[in-house]
Write a structure and sequence with these properties.
138 residues, mainly alpha
């Protein structure tokens, strides 16, 4: 198989023509698509990084707000506990005062009844003593 100069020139010319046709129809579109894909990929990566940064910032804000809410809840809980303890003390003091008053009234009533019973018995002592003596004498 021998190559002649016209055949080599014809094949070279054919190669150059096919190359330029393919360059216009296939290669340039392929390179444009490849470049567009590259830009989309880098754009998506940049957007993902921005979203990660925003997410981290929002999470930090959330943590700060959550800590503040926990602190406020703790303060409110402590205040409610203090109010409940004060109310409990007031109720207990009122109950003790009421009990002491009732006890004093009961003691006064018992003393009054005891005194009335003694007065009543003093008058009856003489009558009972005479009856006992009369019964013993008989």
């Amino acid at each position: 198989m021998e190559f002649t100069l016209p055949e080599v020139a014809y094949q070279a010319l054919l190669f150059v023509v096919v190359y330029f046709i393919l360059k216009k129809t296939v290669f340039e579109r392929f390179l444009e698509n490849l470049e567009a894909r590259h830009h989309r990929t880098h754009g998506a990566l940049a957007e993902a990084e921005a979203l990660r940064t925003e997410t981290a910032r929002l999470q930090a804000d959330y943590e700060v707000q959550l800590a503040e809410m926990r602190r406020q809840a703790s303060v409110a809980r402590d205040e409610i506990r203090r109010q409940a303890e004060a109310s409990e003390r007031e109720i207990l003091e009122a109950a003790r005062a009421d009990a002491a008053k009732s006890l004093a009234e009961a003691r006064a009533e018992i003393q009054k009844q005891t005194d009335a019973a003694r007065v009543s018995l003093r008058g009856e002592i003489e009558t009972i003593s005479q009856q006992v003596l009369a019964a013993l004498m008989q």
